[in-house]
Design a protein that fits this description.
The protein is an alpha/beta fold and 222 residues long. It has 2 domains: 120 residues, 3-Layer(aba) Sandwich (Rossmann fold); 94 residues, Winged helix-like DNA-binding domain superfamily/Winged helix DNA-binding domain (Arc Repressor Mutant, subunit A, Orthogonal Bundle). It contains 9 helices and 14 strands. The protein is elongated and about 60 Å long. The model has no long low-confidence stretch (mean pLDDT 90).
């Protein structure tokens, strides 16, 4: 998980970084100007944000960060007033911690976020289907089946391409190690079995189309 710490107290900033780097990828900024540059050029899972910065209030960064709503913003400030906390939440903060913050509490909170993110990434909703990458199941609201590992990987790849309005090219599948090691190495056989599994679940919103000479496209009906 990638964490950005925005804090003007250099000693505190380095303490946070030293502790958190053991479990997370950490970047730092000590003012609004540097923070904006980093936020505009990189993606983060969590931002730890101080309010009182040398070139302005940390509040002003929250709307920019929250253009990507999946980013968690945790304000860490010595300001305890209810109005200050309310302002942070109204600007889009997800949590507010009052200094001094114990490093144990901060690390525990970030580990909980990381665990939740990992679990969320293992469950993928595709139309009326739910793909569970952990237990290799594909299900609808009424039924569930177990699929091969290779099929789960390919279905996720198809869905990622669907979100990009793109197709899954055959050469991408041929280069996939999990497919080469599977019992159904022939790509069209794998796709045929994956289609059969989707049909068995009686999904009426998810289809896999052949794109002649190129590869496959996932169709998800609204």
């Amino acid at each position: 998980m990638k964490v950005l710490i925005i804090e003007d107290d250099k000693k505190l900033l380095m303490t946070y970084k030293r502790i958190l780097t053991c479990n997370f990828f950490v970047e730092t900024a000590s003012n609004l100007l540097d923070a904006r540059k980093i936020i505009n050029n990189e993606d983060f899972d969590v931002v730890l944000l101080d309010i009182m910065l040398p070139d302005g209030k940390g509040y002003g960064l929250i709307p920019s960060i929250k253009k990507k709503p999946e980013i968690i913003v945790i304000v860490i400030s010595a300001l305890e007033e209810e109005a200050t906390r309310r302002m942070a939440y109204e600007m889009g903060a997800d949590d507010y911690m009052i200094k001094p913050v114990t490093l144990f509490e901060l690390e525990y909170k970030l580990k909980a976020i990381s665990k939740r993110r990992k679990n969320e990434n293992l469950i993928i909703r595709i139309g009326d289907l739910i793909l569970n990458l952990e237990d290799l199941t594909l299900s609808t609201a009424h039924s569930m089946i177990t699929i091969q590992h290779s099929q789960s990987i390919v279905l996720k790849m198809l869905f990622d391409k669907y979100k990009e309005n793109d197709i899954l090219h055959k050469n991408e599948l041929n280069n996939l190690e999990v497919v080469r090691k599977s019992d159904n190495f022939r790509i069209h056989t794998l796709m045929s079995r994956l289609r059969k599994n989707i049909e068995e679940l009686e999904s009426d919103r998810v289809f896999i189309e052949n794109v002649y000479g190129k590869g496959y496209r996932l169709v998800v009906m609204k």
